[in-house]
Each structure stands twice: as C-alpha cells, then as structure tokens.
Design the sequence.
C-alpha cells in the first residue's frame, strides 16, 4: 500500500515535507549551469544535464529529512525528450536514496488513454509479449478529475496492482481555482466538495493498515477554510498540500489538512527549498555554491515549523 | 491565426476529418513491428521505432485528405523518452507534409507551470540567453479547464504570440463525463455550459478573418444534444469532436457541432482510421500490408459521410 509506505517514511523521518523538484533554469546556480553547458552538445541536452545535476545536489542534501520528492513534469517536458530523460534519471536517483517519488503530471483522459498514462507513470507495460516492465515507476502521480471515474479507474487499478498512489485534484492552490471548483450545485454543494466525496468513495477499497487510502487528494494551503472542510469530507484520503511558502500558505494554513493522529497530509514546497540560497533568511549564511546546504536548512526549518503547527492545531 | 490556418486547410482539402494518431502496439501491422524489433536495441526504442514507421505510413497515405493530425500524447509517453521522441518525429513529419498538428495532451496546471507546458507544446523557450526556440512546436494543444483561467492564460498568450490554438475540454466523449461536467449549479447551468461560456469569453480576442477563434473546445460526438446546445453557446469556438466511429458517434451526431457556413468543427477518428485494415468493411479488400491504403479509403469514406451529414443538417 502506497499510503502505508508513505506513512512509514514520514514517521521514520519525523517529516511531512515534500520537496518539489520544479527546476526552472533561473533557479539553478550559475556554476552548475556553466559546467553543464561546457560539457554538453545541444542546448536542450545541456539544460537537462543542469537540471539533473541540480536535482542530484538537492536530493543528496535532503533525502534524510523528507519522505518524498514531487517532480513537476512541465519543467522537464519543457526541454523535450532530453528533459523527459532528466525526469526519469531524477526519479531513479531519488528512489535509490530511499525517497518516494510523486510525479506531478495532472494527467487525465478517457478510459483506454488513462490506462496508457497510468502505465507510463505508475504501472507497467508489455511489448510484443515481453514480460511486464516499468517505464517511470513513480510511487504516485497527480490526476485531474474533470472526466469522472473513467479517467481515474485505470490509475486506481494500477494503485492496487503495484502498491502505488494517486492524488486527485480537489481544490487547487491557484487564485482562479474557484472559477470551476467553487461553483455551487443546486443541492448546495461545491464542485470541490463533490469531487472530494468521489475521492473518499473511490479510495474506500485501498485503505491501508494506518487507516489511510492510497487514493489521495490535492488541496491547496492557500485555502485553509476549505482545507478544514475537506479534511472532514475525505477522512481517509492522504492530502498533498501545495501552496505553502512562495505561494503564500503558512504552516498554520497547511495544518488544517492533518488529522488528530498527526497524519493525513504532506506539504510540498518547491521554490522555497530549491531557491533557499537566494532567500532573505539564508542568503547571508550560504553562498550560491552552498545551495544544497541552504535547501537542507530551509527544509528542516519548514519541517519543524509544520510539526509545531500540527501539534498546536489539536491542543485546546 | 490558427483558426484561419485550419480553415484554409479544411477548404483546400474539402475535409474536416482529423486523423488521430494514437498508435497502440496492437494496432500496428506485424511486418512493421518485426522490422522495428529486428533493427533496434531495446524494447522501448523498438516500440518507438514501430510507432513512427506506422505513423509515417499513415501520414504518407492520408496527408492530402485531412487538414490535421491529432497525436494522443499518452500512447507515446507510455514508451518513455523514446516514445516522446517518436511523438516529436511524427509531429515534424506531419508538418513537413503540410498537416497541422494537434497535441492531445490535456495539460493543466497553475500559472507558471501552465506556462512551462505551453512553452513545451506550442510556445518557445530560451535557455541562458539563447534566442527563443521551439520544443515541439505543435499547432495546437488540448487543455483541461478544472483550474480556471490561471491554467489557460499562458496558453492563450502563446496562441496570440505564435499563431497557435488550444482546444479546451468542455464536454468529453466518455461515459462518465457527466459526473462533473453535467452537474447543475444553483443558477440552473451545467458545468460544461459554464466552461463553454468561459471558452467563448476567453477566445474573444483571438477571432480570425473567418469569424472563428483560435481558442477552441472539445465536445464529444457521443453527446449530440449537448453538442447542439454548445454550438450555440460557443458561437466562435472551433470545436474538436472526438467520439466518432469506434466510440459510437455517427456522422449525424458529429454534424451538430457545425455552423451553417459548413465550418466550426473538426471530427477526429483514431482507431477507425489506424485499424481500417482490420475493419469489417475493408478487411476483404486490403491486406495487413495495405494498412495505409485501407486508412485512406476509410478517411475518404468518413470525409464524404460527414460532408453529406453537415449539408443535410442545414437543409429544411
């Protein structure tokens, strides 16, 4: 069960921080860029090499203080097939270091095509009678619910077969998320609430020994009131919380997605970890060359801040 | 303007059929598979080679009877970075043959990440001060509206900058599409209708000389009544219609997405074109080796059938 594997790692590291590896070129320290661009042939290949080198440095520095990394597919696809290779290489390296890998790909399509996506990200494929083999073999992937269960079911089946997980978009962290998600139906329910009910229902058969389902949800830290509401609608879903840090969500906001057992959510931070070396609180202590140490310091700071906020949340 | 480029090609070829290149291994004739698997090193590479060879054969046979091809990204991503390369190679080859390329990727994410996706599919990137360059350079891409305008705007900006198009999922062709899309708000509007209103509004600044916007929509042929309704809500949107053929939509169903000028929609068929050589109506006339000829025969049959249905639709 993905949910149990995740919880085991969270407990071992006393951390529910997920490091988001969304490596925009402008985040990457100049010496890494310089090295990659001296070494490689074409600019896409160089960019992909720089991304991988940056990710590797970050992973080496934080693998013992986070249970998982989240790779935002867009920032790899941007560099073509070379970027996609860097995505795979990063995922493999993270797994070697004992991290769970969440592919943030927000995929969605109708049944047979959803199956192809699921095979690509968390499942297996068989070509011409060869034995089943993994392509990316991520531990979990994010999916979009606009197409209903047809687009989700193949992923759920693979979660069951291969001990994987998915996080279904429920209430996203962006400003305009309400344009569709906050619409209220004639029964007085919001769309995000209806999706949340589906998540709970779809996940019922995949609840692990810790009481959490491998069918999780995405709920932004930028909407703390909705997060509180959604926590009680989706009692068994593990919630992936984006929007902390650079997007404006605080530790107290993020704490709304936890249950009283101190579990139930993982908090993603991308920019604030990757660019810690540029941040006001760290830039005097760490040089650009020490980007990995700065990332570690920020991850630990964030871990402790969230752990305190979660404990506080359930006191008095 | 993408919409004008599309219309020009539709008129030149008297065809609004889009050939969907969703190359599942089981669609590919055995001699192509055999050749690719003899030639290549690893199984993913072989699969990617077979996909490209199959696509090339299809494109060579139908490029003069369709205005565009639609590449379903999932069936390429399934074969890893090699599959992604086959996606690029197919897109490039199709463009060389004068076809417009629609990337069916259903991407969606928050602002900056949506920008990265848009750059990957229809926009351009700049690395370390190099001049802007294209990655995939498709003519259009499908996008999912669940995140609201934040996730759409970067695509619209690139449509404007680079004469590209998008097709926003409104009412998808699958069985469970109603689970979210058919929900009725307290104002008595369905979600798909609300999304359709947004499409019309978001596309207002990109209307070309033929009266159609480069911000289009996806509406399944499997929901003809909704298609009729949506045609009148989104007067200026070009509508990409999946669900014809293997999924059950008829030419008469598809005709609901057209306007009286005989324009306004393109009809996708994937399986019925790619697997024409296996279909009851063609399998006695064409061998497996003649898959390309069978695809052409089916495309022409479909083109004529739809042209007749569209004309009939607006007669008395």
Sequence:
């Amino acid at each position: 069960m993905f949910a149990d594997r995740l919880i085991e790692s969270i407990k071992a590291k006393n951390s529910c921080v997920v490091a988001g590896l969304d490596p925009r070129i402008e985040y990457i320290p100049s010496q890494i860029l310089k090295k990659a661009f001296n070494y490689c042939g074409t600019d896409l290949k160089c960019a992909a090499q720089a991304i991988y080198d940056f990710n590797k440095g970050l992973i080496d520095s934080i693998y013992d203080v986070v249970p998982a990394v989240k790779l935002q597919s867009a920032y790899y696809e941007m560099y073509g097939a070379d970027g996609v290779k860097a995505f795979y290489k990063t995922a493999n390296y993270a797994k070697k270091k004992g991290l769970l890998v969440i592919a943030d790909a927000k995929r969605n399509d109708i049944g047979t095509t959803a199956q192809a996506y699921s095979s690509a990200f968390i499942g297996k494929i068989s070509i011409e009678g060869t034995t089943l083999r993994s392509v990316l073999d991520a531990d979990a992937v994010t999916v979009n619910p606009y197409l209903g269960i047809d687009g989700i079911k193949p992923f759920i089946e693979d979660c069951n077969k291969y001990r994987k997980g998915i996080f279904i978009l429920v209430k996203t962290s962006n400003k305009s998320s309400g344009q569709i998600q906050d619409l209220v139906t004639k029964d007085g329910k919001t769309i995000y609430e209806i999706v949340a009910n589906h998540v709970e229902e779809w996940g019922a058969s995949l609840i692990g020994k810790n009481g959490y389902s491998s069918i999780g949800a995405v709920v932004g830290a930028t909407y703390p009131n909705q997060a509180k509401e959604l926590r009680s609608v989706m009692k068994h879903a593990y919630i992936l919380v984006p929007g902390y840090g650079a997007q404006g969500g605080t530790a107290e906001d993020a704490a709304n997605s936890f249950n009283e057992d101190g579990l139930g959510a993982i908090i993603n931070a991308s920019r604030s970890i990757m660019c810690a070396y540029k941040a006001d609180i760290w830039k005097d202590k760490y040089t650009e060359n020490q980007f990995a140490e700065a990332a570690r310091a920020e991850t630990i700071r964030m871990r402790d801040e969230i752990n305190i906020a979660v404990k506080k949340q359930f006191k008095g």
Q: What stands out?
A: The longest helix of chain B spans residues 291-313. The beta strands of chain B are 17-21, 68-72, 100-107, 124-125, 133-134, 140-143, 165-171, 213-219, 237-241, 265-269. Chain B has a mean pLDDT of 96. Chain B touches chain A through 69 residues (CB under 8 Å).
